[in-house]
Sequence to fold (428 residues):
Amino acid sequence: MHENTGSQRDAASTIFNLPDYRVTDAIDLPDGGRRVVIESIEPPGCPSCGVLATKVHSRRSQKVRDVPVAGAVEVVWAKRRWFCLEPACARRTFWEATDQVPYRARSTTRLRDQVVSAVLTSGRAASEVARAHGVSWWLVQSALAAAAVVLPAAEDVRVTRLGIDEHRYRSVRWFRTDEGAWRRFEPWMTTLVDLTTGQVLGVVDGRDSTAVGDWLAQRSEDWRERIEIVAIDPSAAFRKALRTYLPRAAVSVDKFHLVKLGNDMVTAVRQRLARTHHGRRGRKDDPAWAHRMLLLRGADTLTPRAWERLERVFRTDDPTDELSAAWGIKEQLRRLLATDTLAQAWNERMRMGYFVQIANMPEATKLYDTVVTWWDAIEVLIVTGATTARVEAANTGIKNIKRIGRGFRNAENYRMRILLTSAAKTVA
Fold:
């Protein structure tokens, strides 16, 4: 059925609400859908000289994809070709274009903005957003790519505290070499984050000094000079890149990773003792294995009942007292990291070294050697409190992006999605 909008034309245009356009016709289609015919309101200026056009050369109908308006709508633009009447202009004719439908566009700007917002703010997959809006995956992806182009460059973000940590881009894969051997490949990526705002500044391939160093080398000298503190995990590769490109920045080692090293030390001792005393791996009947997670808890978090269970483990499944010694060294590391001053930290370090010397266990010695190696960074941690917490939060968001998208095959699309999502959250 053909609707004569007539005097209702303004009302229809208001309801449709497409800037710079008015509704000239509305048609009910046999399939139950609707067709809305629109035209631009103001005559355009010549793209070459800017003189406003006054004479129409020709017309044609162009279908335009747009957002649903009370259901799916087929939008047809009564597009006009104009004469340029400026004698000095070399362009004789041109097709009109608007902010909502730019040159060569087949979809409105508001549609592209809406699909980008749906992906970034609601956390939906691009394919799901495409189905919901009745468009192709390629349109959603091109809209995301266009949005990424206008993202502020890392160079334009004033950063004083930088955080660096790695994450897996894809699952572990195995490849056969030319010699016929199988080789394990772990596709790591490194995330660089502004510790002040939590914004992801960059995502680079790999987790070595070259990957981080190349990214830092692309930044200007002024940008690098502003960096005061860099928080990392105990990674020699990251520290090597920082010594080269950020020699004046103070390096802080993350507290969580140091505590994890202490927990790993306790686990290694427990596993060694199980093999030594039982001749096998731990089982559920072994108190040390049954309470393996209790061994990793901080002493300050234990309830009286938990203390009783822990003492029972040391009494019944620790004949050499090595497990209790390892647990005590782990707790001493936690006390060291909880200090407020460098003097207190040094005293706790000396006490830890004494405990390690008495215990005489390779696992504990290795842990203490790590503390000694990273002592300068530990001092920065105690003084500044700089950790990689915001980087870990960013990596958690990255995991959600991978989960929603069911993984990514294209590394550039993956990197673009991370940067866009992070920028949207930072602005919000």
Remarks:
- Residues 2-105 form one domain.
- The two ends are 46 Å apart (CA to CA).
- The longest helix spans residues 255-278.
- The chain is about 45% helix and 20% strand.
